Amino acid sequence: MPRSIILSLALIAATPLIAQTAQTTQTTTPTIHTAADLTQREAKLIETAKTVPTGFAVATIDDYGNDRTLLVVRLHTGDAERHQLWADQIYVNKGDLILVYGGTMQQERPNGTAPGETLGSSIEGGKEIPLHTGDIIHIPAGIPHWVKVAPGTTATYLVFKEKDK
Length: 165
Prior knowledge:
The chain is built from two helices and 13 strands. It is α+β, with helices and mostly antiparallel strands. It has two domains: 1-30; 35-163, Sandwich (Jelly Rolls). The termini are far apart. The model is unreliable at 3-25 (pLDDT under 50).
């Protein structure tokens, strides 16, 4: 009997170490997306965007639970949006955008696919910021924002979403 108690105690004591090792391995393994990979994904998304009336296509590149990376293609200006639970950091890969933030979303309605997110037809009274290839902007959670694309142009960008704590 004492031997089984000792083995049980050893197993209980080792469990946090095993869990910590698994967690460390999981969070310290880097993920890389090459320029060639991103260019290939972008080309596919552009073709997809051309086939839909919204001129919008998106692919999730990474999803780690509390943060994820999206590749977005826009051929047209889309809906304004607000994420109560997520901050967005946008890197403009190609093209020119105007980001409108703050103000009041017009015709705000729930986004049926994501809890805590709403969409709107536009933003009234927001501030406009022109963004160009290579620019990065951070949008805190809860702030309405709207990506506008100049007619006849294509814009691609990466969105790094982080769950607000």
